[in-house]
Amino acid sequence: MIDWLYFAVQAAALAMSAWFFVDTARSVRVGRRHLVGVAALELLLLAQLAASIAIVPGEAGDGKALFFSYLVTTILVPVAAVFWGSIDRSRWGIGTVAASGLIVAALMVRIHQIWEFQIHV
Fold first, then answer.
1. pTM, whole model, 2 decimals?
2. Is pLDDT of 41 > 70?
3. What is the span of the domain harbouring residue 34?
4. Contact 102, 87 (CB under 8 A)
C-alpha cells in the first residue's frame, strides 16, 4: 500500500464528510457539486485499487482475499450512498452520503491494518 495515497484517501473522505455534514445541517439536497466530491473520492479509491493490484501479487503473506474484499467494499460504499441520497429527498439524503465518508475512512484504517499485519509482514 502506498502511504501517501492512503493518507490522501483518508483526508478526502474526512473532508467530504465534513462538507456534507455542514450541508446536512443546512438542509441541502444532493446536487451536482456533491457528485463531484464523491467522484474525486472514487478516483482516489480506484487509484488505490490499481496500486494494490500492482503491488500485492509479489508480496508474501496471507490475507490477500480479505484485503481486496475490503478494498472493493470501500469503493462501493460511496456509490451506494450517493444513489440512496439522491433518492431520499429529505435533509437526511445528504447525511447518508456524509456518513459514507466516515465509513470509507474506517474501512481504510482496516485495510491498512490488513496490509501491515497480514500481507506486508
1. 0.90
2. yes
3. 3-119
4. no
